[in-house]
Amino acid sequence: MDRIKLRNQLGKYRTPYEEEAAFIADFAELTADPLAYKRERLEGHFTASSWIVNHERTHTLLTLHRKLGRWLQLGGHADGNENLMEVALQEASEESGLTSLRLVDLTIFDIDKHIIPERPHVPQHFHFDVRYLLEADINEPLQMSDESISLAWIAFDSVVDMIGYNPSILRMLEKTSKSEILL
């Protein structure tokens, strides 16, 4: 998906979640900036991630992120690639080792604008994260990358206990639970 397709998808994107709806326009505006797909744009840039679920929609795959020390969905920086769906799939594969990953839908599943804290040589900045829904075989062995402390399939009813309060993840969990997508 190039930046024009992304902008068109964002123009059609609708959500009942106020916190998510509040930044759709910010995402659409950012698509016009070619630097927005590179982490060198220090005020903020695009990232892409995957909300990975098993076929039965009972578990999600989360990673304990090494730099942030929090349980999150798999994903990463676009690094110049304007096809964020491709970025999400590549990051999911690299961070999990899964070969059974399957894109459930060609449309955006969720978006989130969140702040990344300052680190040495990197100022505080925003991630404009575009998320896609993927399925994978829960029985396939996982291969953890260097970016993770841990990687695990978490039962939907245990996600809150595992991650605490993270409105972005809770929103994706709720979307999956209410989803009318056929299994």
UniProtKB/TrEMBL annotation:
One of its GO terms (molecular function) is hydrolase activity. Residues 43-176 form the Nudix hydrolase domain. Keywords: Hydrolase. SUPFAM superfamilies: Nudix (SSF55811). Signal peptide: none annotated. Pfam families: NUDIX (PF00293). This is NUDIX hydrolase. It comes from Algoriphagus aestuariicola. The lineage of its organism: Bacteria, Pseudomonadati, Bacteroidota, Cytophagia, Cytophagales.
